[in-house]
Amino acid sequence: MNSNKNISKLFKLISEKKIFLILIFLNLLFQHYITYYVSANINLDADKDKENENDKEKDKEKDAYNTIIIASYIIGFILIIILVFVPMSAWLKFIIFSLFSVAYGVIFISIKNYFDHNILHSVVMGSIIVFAFMIFFGIAISGLQLTNSVAFGLFYAILVLIIVSVVQYYTYYYSFIKKLLLIAVAILFTLYIVNTTNNVLHRNYEGDFVTASFDYYIDNSNFLNALKIHNN
Fold first, then answer.
1. Range among 79-88, 124-133, 172-181, 223-232 rated most confident
2. Which of 76, 110, 200, 228 pairs as cysteine with 103 (C-beta 3.0–4.6 A)?
3. What are phi and psi of 89, to 5 degrees?
4. Alpha carbon distance 82, 93 (integer Å)
5. Domain assignment present for 193
6. Please, are residues 184 and 83 in contact by the beta-carbon 8 Å criterion?
7. Chain centroid to CA 83: how far?
8. What is the DSSP string of the chain?
9. Which of 14-18, 109-113, 114-118 has the lowest mean pLDDT?
10. What pLDDT is stored for residue 145 in this prediction?
11. Which pLDDT does position 231 carry in this prediction?
12. Would you give the end-to-end CA distance of the chain in angstroms?
């Protein structure tokens, strides 16, 4: 019963703050694209492409790699401190957030081998689709007369359908057991997204969608890091 009321309140908040939520969504898309672009286009594993190098040169390559990763962690931490504690305009926050996304893209290079790429793609695409669906669904039902139970059931039924479809698309050749495990992880991640959205919408950001999207970005990144799966 309480969950029905919470979902009902969430839909109401989405309807009331739809512009704010859309701005969060667009900024998140942009920041995640920066992170993806950096991690996909910067090659820090140069030593693997030079098999004829001697051990001394390879050690230099590894030292340079470790220095870049450590520097990215330090820069990322400093940028978080600035974003959280230093008052600034929305545009300056946006620029610093973008710089953080670049730093996180470099950091992600060091951990992306711990993810199965198909699983990573399905989770990321699923989260984007789920977030967009929440906005659409919240706005759509605001003009309909649905009971809490009906809205609650319809919302989660469509979410599960979306999750199963996305998982099936990216993991077509996976075993049935592995698909079930991935669906369970995706559902857990979806519930996390819904809960994070609920928390963000209940907090008074006074229209500061950059800070709201940064909080969202950090929460989702932490959750994704907790689900690292080695790519076999």
1. 79-88
2. 76
3. -75, 165
4. 9
5. yes
6. no
7. 18
8. -HHHHHHHHHHHHHHHTHHHHHHHHHHHHHHHHHHHHHHHH----GGGG-TT--HHHHHHHHHHHHHHHHHHHHHHHHHHHHHHHS---HHHHHHHHHHHHHHHHHHHHHHGGGS-HHHHHHHHHHHHHHHHHHHHHHHHHTTS---HHHHHHHHHHHHHHHHHHHHHHHTTTS-HHHHHHHHHHHHHHHHHHHHHHHHHHHS--TT-HHHHHHHHHHHHHHHHHHT-----
9. 114-118
10. 59
11. 46
12. 43
Distance of alpha carbon 215 from alpha carbon 213, whole angstroms: 5
The rounded radius of gyration (Å) of the Cα atoms in the chain is 20
Structurally, the chain folds into a number of domains equal to 1
Assigned domain for 126 exists: yes
Distance of alpha carbon 217 from alpha carbon 118, whole angstroms: 21
Task: Write down how long the chain is.
Answer: 232
For the cut 60, the answer to whether the pLDDT of residue 132 exceeds it is: yes
Q: What is the rounded distance in angstroms from the CA atom of residue 189 to the CA atom of residue 212?
A: 19
> What domain range is 199 assigned to?
2-226
Verdict on whether the full-model pTM lies above 0.85:
no
Q: Which of 45, 94, 49 is nearest to 69 (CA)?
A: 45
> Is residue 231 assigned to a domain?
no
Distance CA 11, CA 5 (A): 10
Classify residue 232: in a domain, yes or no. Answer: no
